Amino acid sequence: METDLRISPRERLVLTSIIENYISTGEPVASQALARQFGNKNGMSAATIRNIMAALGEAGLLDQPHSSSGRVPTAQAFRLYVGQLSGNTRGALLAPERREQIDEIFAGIGSNQQFLERTSHVLALISSGVGVALAHIRETQALEHIHFSRLTPNRVLAVVVTTSGVVQDRVLVIDKPLSPGELEAAARFLNENFRGWSIDRIRTELGRRLEAERSEYDRLMHSVEELYRKGALAGPAVQGPTIYVEGVANLLASEIDRERLLVMLAALEAKQRLMDLLVAYVDARQQNVRVVVGLEEAIPGMENLVLIGAPARLGSENHGTVAVIGSTRMQYQETMNAVSYISKLSEKIFQLPQ
Fold first, then answer.
1. What are the backbone dihedrals phi and psi of residue 50, each rounded to the nearest 5 degrees, phi first?
2. Given CA atoms 210, 202, 284, 304 in this order, what sign does their dihedral have?
3. What fold is seen in the domain 9-74?
């Protein structure tokens, strides 16, 4: 849907008032209510407002649930409203008391993982929606060190420790026995060459070296290849991104249709689908907060839900995504400001020693 629809200043004023009244009450907005709200300030009678509302309806910006009721904004109207907020630099700063609240919650953070856990909590608290924080793969898979212990001639214990503190051990069943010296040499090679690398990057580089350098130090690479092939650098601790979700119950207070709510909750509980949603809509390269209205286009069942998200970066490196998923009736400006503030706060947090 287009969000650059041309409407007159009067039409924009009426549309903005309808949206903000609807966010506040959840009820269709009638022309008489707007006329009372405007008074004589704008020179618009109830009849004039009705004509403007009719024009906005024809433009696809308002719906009329019943013939005798007022109007409610459409998804396209919310997109237009959000675009207007995004262009308003005066409202782009988070209130001082809200900044203090966020800073207090993040006080004492000691790791990237704690930052993302608390992000989902604080965003749920502030927005009365669902707070979501996604740690990207490299954040959970950076290698701190690896150790191999020989259990039997054909069984090896591999212990992988990541920079985020995750420890994963697994027993490898190998085809050809490796001596304790060969295991120690293989671990030393991996630790000296790949500490701080993501597991995915290590696997890719090992595959390349195993082909290019096999003849150069065949014996060592044979040991590494055997351990690598048997899954030393695989397992639950390093198979994908981590997602933190909090505040799903907040939607219970904002939705009346319980049958549709159950569908929405089922969609939100499918964490893989949430990951896909964040990856699809929040670009690691974007500089600003992105607002997406109409999530049902990506995940059926998420009708009337909005995504407000931004990347969490340190310099040019993308560590994850912070976002809110909430009702179209959320307080947009405050939520956008909070997401923006926390995404920028990540620059400081991710510089902490892990």
1. -60, -40
2. positive
3. Arc Repressor Mutant, subunit A (1.10.10)
Give the pTM: 0.67
Specify the pLDDT at position 81: 93
Rounded to 5°, the CA angle 224-228-230 comes to 120
**C-alpha distances in angstroms, 308 versus 153, 262, 328?**
54, 22, 11
Q: What is the DSSP string of 111-151?
A: SHHHHHHHHHHHHHHHHSSEEEEEE-HHHHHBEEEEEEEEE
Rounded distance, CA 302 to CA 178, Å?
53
CB 172 within 8 A of CB 187: no
Give per-residue pLDDT as tens, 96-108.
899 899 989 888 8
The residue among 350, 339, 347 whose CA lies nearest residue 133 is 339
3-state DSSP assignment of residue 340: helix
Strand partners, 145: 161
Our CA angle for 303, 283, 88, nearest 5°, is 75
CATH topology for the 140-238 domain? Enolase-like; domain 1 (3.30.390)
Most confident of 4-8, 47-51, 87-91: 47-51
DSSP letter for 251, please.
G
CA neighbor of 132 nearest in space, from 336, 283, 308: 308
CATH for the 89-136+241-349 domain, from 3.40.1180.10, 3.65.10.10, 3.30.450.40, 3.40.50.1970: 3.30.450.40
Pairing of strands 130-135, 317-327: antiparallel
Length of the chain: 354
Packed helices 271-281 and 258-269: angle between N→C axes, nearest 10 degrees: 80
The pLDDT tens digits of the residues spanning 234-249 come to 544 444 567 878 877 7
